[in-house]
């Protein structure tokens, strides 16, 4: 897709240069304006959309793999692996969020609050699982003394 856009942009620029060369030779020829606005040559937004689509397809593929593991979980009792796979999935979602931060207003108090809260909860929830694991490795459990 990006290659086609680059070829299209190159073709239009080449046509524009050839037109300017012809106008230089024929100074008496009336000048015309192109109906194509220069804003259509900005492909940054298109690249962002393509990037987000690729990320969404990867998450969809990962979701299918997680569904297959979920179906086999009951047969093999994969509770630990199942929880780890969900942690990986949420890690990918967090990575996509971090990628999107560069396009956000980082001076906004709301955005800073959401980012700080998500980082704090990510660290504190994992610490909760570490601190409430029973001696035989099963968790989270409340240990009675």
UniProtKB/TrEMBL annotation:
Keyword entries, A-Z: Membrane, Transmembrane, Transmembrane helix
Chain ranges passing through the membrane: 81-100, 112-130
The family this protein is said to belong to: Belongs to the nucleobase:cation symporter-2 (NCS2) (TC 2.A.40) family.
Protein name: Disease resistance protein RGA3
Protein species of origin: Pyrus ussuriensis x Pyrus communis
High-level lineage: Eukaryota, Viridiplantae, Streptophyta, Embryophyta, Tracheophyta
